[in-house]
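Table S2 (continued). Query chain:
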Amino acid sequence: MVNPIEAEQALRHRVGINLRALRQSAGLTLRKAAELAEIHWRHLQKIEAGEINITLYTLVRLACALHADAAALLGHRWQPVN
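Corresponding output:
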């Protein structure tokens, strides 16, 4: 059985890595990307560090700000847990 706490932490980490990579490849600073997503830059910094959990709404806002699909931030295809 998958430990939900560990799975959530791993997903936060993956989203942070993918978000940072997309932001940097777009040539955006933390402040500019946060402005485009209409969130505080410190909040974005915490998301990229995998320190906080975010809502799907925030995930979509970040993806839109980076002109990416929200699934790209998750970084993997959905696989059901047995």
